[in-house]
Amino acid sequence: MTLDEIPLLVDSSLHDDLLCRESFNDLEKQTNLVLKTIKKFFGKKDFYNGDDITAINRHKIEAKTNGSDTLTFEEAIEYLNKLYIDNAIAFHNPNYVAHLNCPVVLPAIAAEIIATTINTAVETWDQSTSATFIEQEVIKWICGEFNFPVTSDGVFTSGGSQSNFMALLMARDDYAFKHFGVNIKQQGWFNEVSKFKIFCSDKAHFSVKKNAALLGMGYDAVVPVKTDYKMRMDPKALELAIEKVKQEGNIPIAVVATMGTTDFGSFDPLTEISKISNDYQMWLHVDGAYGGCFVLTDTHKKYFKSIDLADSITIDFHKTFFQPVSCSAYLVKERKNFQYVSYYADYLNPQENRDEARPNLIEKSTQTTRRFDALKVWFTLKTLGKNTISKYLEKVHYLAESVYHKIKDNPLFEVAHKPELSTIVFRYKSLNVNENKVHDRVNLFIKNKLFKQGKASIASTKLDGNIYLKFTLLNPNNTEENLFEILKMIEQKGEQYKSIN
Question: Which CATH architecture describes the domain 387-500?
Fold first, then answer.
C-alpha cells in the first residue's frame, strides 16, 4: 500500500473541535456563553441553593455519562448549569465563612485563561521555554520575602499536602545521608528509618501524619506536641518529647512548625523552636500553607522573625493570595536538597544535556506534568502588587478580631481563643445547660440547619473532644454587619433547637 492509498480514518470536520487559529471564532462564542452563565452564578443572593436529598439523588443520576450521547455546546452548558453551576458553593458570598476557600482576584482569572488555553507544561525547557523564568522569579520573590539566602529555591506544587510531603521526604533522606551515609533514593529502606521521629504540634495539619504514612514511616513516626492556651506548640513540651524519644532508642530527625494552624490560625513560636531544632540537628520545616502569605503584612511581621532559620517552607497562594486552586509552593533554603527528588530520564531531561541557561524544572518536582500555576501569582504581582494583597489580609484579620470582641462577653457564646489570623473558633452555649453532649448536639444542629437551608456555611471542629463552630474569614468584601447577622442566625437556631427538643 502506498502513502496515497492509506484510508482517511478521521473525518477532517472533526478537527474543528480542536483549538487552533481556525476554531478561535467558535472559542470566542463559547467563552461568551460561559461568562454569561457564570455571571448569573455570581449574581445569586445565597451561597448555596440549599440541601435537598431528592435533588442530590437526581444530580447523582444526571452526572452519569456513557461517552456516546452528546449535546450541542449550548445544550451542554444549560445541562451543566442545572447540574453543577447553579448548585455550586459560592466562596465569594459573604455568608460563606466555613473553610480556607478565598475569592479570587481578576488578574489570576486572566492568567488562568492564558495558561489553560496555551496549555504549557512546566517540566522541561523544550515544553515551557520562558514560562520557566516566570516560575523561577516568583519563587525567588517569595524566598526573598522570607529572608531566605541566595542558595534557596523552590517549586510550585498542587497544594500544602504535596509540599509537606516533599518536606518530610527531604528531612528523612537528608538525615539518613548525613548521619548514616545511606542514599535512600538509590538504596532504599534501612532499619534505622523505623526509629526516625518527626515532631509537630497537636494542632498541626493532618498531612504531616498522612505523609509520614505515605513515606512508609507510619503514623507513629509523628510525635504530637502539646500546645499552650493560644494553641501554639509549647517549646518546653517539644524538648521533653525529643528527650523521651531519645531515651526510648528512637531518632528525632525533624520538627514541623505551623504558621497558621488550620483550625485556630495560631503561630508556633518559631524562634524557640528553631533553636531546639538546631541544637538537636533536626530539619525544621515551616507549614505556612495558611499563614505564610501574612509575611506581607505589617500586622504579622513579628511572627516571621526567625523564618530564615527554617530548612523548608510550605505556602499556599490559593488560600491567602486570592488565587484559584491549585496554586502552592514548596521552598528550600538550600537548593542542593532537591537532589533527593530529582531524576534524569533519557527521553526527557538526560543529565548530560543539562543547560543552566535552559533549565528543566522537573528536576525539583515530584510531579512530571505540571500546570503553569506560577503565572497567576506573577500576573497578580505585576498588576496589583503585594501591597494590595497585604491590605486584603489585614482586612480579614480585622474582621476576625471584630467577631471575637462581639461575642467574647456574650453569655450565649464561648470563645476558644483570640484570633491571630482570620479564624475564630467558638460555640453556642444554651443558658443553664452544663452538659457538653447537649452543647455538641445544639452546635451541630445550628451548623447543619444553616447549611441545608442555604443561609450560611460555617465549619465545625473539636476542642478537648467538644464540638465548636468556626468562622474562617478570607473574603475582604465581607463586613462586620454581615458577620454579626450570621451570629444572630446562630442564636436563632440555638433557640429553635430548644423549642423542638
Answer: Alpha-Beta Complex (3.90)
